Amino acid sequence: MKRNPFQREGDAFYLVMVVGVAALAVIAVSAISARAGAVLGLILIFAALVVVWRWTRRAISKPDE
After folding, report:
1. What pLDDT does residue 14 have?
2. Nearest CA-CA partner of 19 in 47, 58, 59
3. What's the rounded Cα separation, in Å, for the pair 2 and 18?
4. Phi then psi for 4, rounded to 5 degrees?
5. What's the rounded Cα separation, in Å, for the pair 52 and 39?
6. Contact 22, 8 (CB under 8 A)
7. pLDDT tens, residue order, the chain (65 aa)
8. Coil, strand or helix: which one is 61?
């Protein structure tokens, strides 16, 4: 049986913290320049999708402990 990577509280907390830090970065940069904040937001969204995709594929491929 495969492991659900979103079933553990620690995994969910990690994702929430990453999203929170990214949001704070976008807010800080947007205070300086709205255009730069939008660009940073798009870059972070793309990076997050790539990281979560790889993390999920790796976690799902591991068998249950």
Report:
1. 82
2. 47
3. 24
4. -85, 115
5. 20
6. no
7. 455 656 778 877 887 888 889 899 999 999 999 999 999 999 998 998 888 788 777 767 766 55
8. helix
CA angle 16, 40, 56 (to 5 degrees): 40
Angle at 54 between CA 30 and CA 9, to 5 degrees: 80
User: Token pair for residue 12?
Assistant: 């969910």
**Residue (of 4, 42, 2) closest to 50 by Cα position:** 42
Residue at 42: amino acid letter = L
Report the distance separating Cα 22 and Cα 24, nearest Å.
5
User: Would you state the structure tokens that stand for residue 22, as one six-digit string?
Assistant: 């990214």
What are the structure tokens assigned to 17, written together? 């913290």
Instruction: Give the number of other Cβ atoms within 10 Å of residue 26's Cβ.
Output: 20
